[in-house]
Amino acid sequence: MLKRAIGTRYARALFDLANKNGKLAEIEKDYPVIINMITENSDLKSFLFHPAIGNTEKKALLEKLLKNSVSDLFADFVNMLVDKNREPYIELIWEDFKILLMDHNKQETAKIYTPFELSPELKSSIAAGLSKSTGKKVEINEVVDSSLIGGIKVQIGDKVFDGSIKSSLAQLSEALHSAKV
After folding, report:
1. How would residue 29 be classed by pLDDT, with cut points 50, 70 and 90?
2. How many CB atoms lie within 10 A of CB 74?
3. Which of 76, 88, 80 is nearest to 51 (CA)?
4. Can you give the C-alpha Rg of the chain in angstroms?
5. pTM beyond cutoff 0.70
6. Is residue 90 a contact partner of residue 35, using CB atoms and an 8 Å limit?
7. In the chain, N or C: fewer CB atoms in 10 Å?
8. Confidence of residue 1 (pLDDT cuts 50, 70, 90)
C-alpha cells in the first residue's frame, strides 16, 4: 500500500511539472531510457537500489549513463529520487506516470481475452466499439486463452465484461447445483 502511494505521489508530481512546462512528450520519451537500463542490467539495478551505496556515487553513475540521453528535467527528477532514497520506486512511478499520461491523452488500454487470435479487422472493430463506449481512444492488448472455448472477455481498468462460453457454462453449472430437486 505504501509503495503504491509513493509511486502515485511522485508520478503525479512529475506529471504536473512536465505538463506545466509542456514537456510531457519529452518525459514519455526519456523515462523508458532508465527503465530499459535497469531491466537489462541487473548489476546496475542492484547498485542503484542498494541502501549501503551512497547517493553521491549513484548520482555520479546516473549522470554518466543518462548524459545526452535524457532531458534536464528528467535528469533532475532522477537525481531527486536518489536524494530522497526513492530509486527503488522508479519502475512503479513509471507505471503510474503512464496511467496519468493515458488519462490526459484520453486513452485507455483494454485487455481482450479470446480463444483464438483476432483478425486485424475484428480487433479494429472491437477497439472502435470500446472507444465509442468509453469516450477514449482504446488500445487493444490481446491475450489468447483457449480455455475460454468461445466468446470474449474484456478488461478495461478495473472493469471486466465476460461474454465467454466458459463463463456462461460456469454460471449454468452453478445454477444447476443450487437448484432444489
Report:
1. very high
2. 21
3. 88
4. 22
5. yes
6. yes
7. C
8. low
H-only helix segments in 90-164: 90-104, 120-134
Burial of 71 (0-12, 13-18, 19+ CB in 10 A): middle
* Average of per-residue pLDDT across 147-153: 87
Q: Indicate the helix (H) or strand (E) that contains 40.
A: helix 24-40
- pLDDT value, residue 151: 86
> 112: part of which helix (H) or strand (E)?
strand 107-114
Q: Which residue ranges form the domains of the chain, and what is each CATH number?
A: 2-102 (1.10.520.20), 107-178 (no CATH)
**Residue pair 50/78 in contact by the 8 Å Cβ criterion:** no
**Do 118 and 146 meet the contact criterion of CB atoms below 8 Å apart?**
no
Task: Name the nearest CA neighbour of 14 among 2, 30, 35.
Answer: 30
**Cβ(97)–Cβ(65) below 8 Å:** no
Looking at the DSSP bridge assignments, the partners of residue 38 are none
Could you tell me which of 122, 86, 116 has the C-alpha nearest to residue 6? 86
Q: Which of 75, 155, 174 is nearest to 111 (CA)?
A: 155
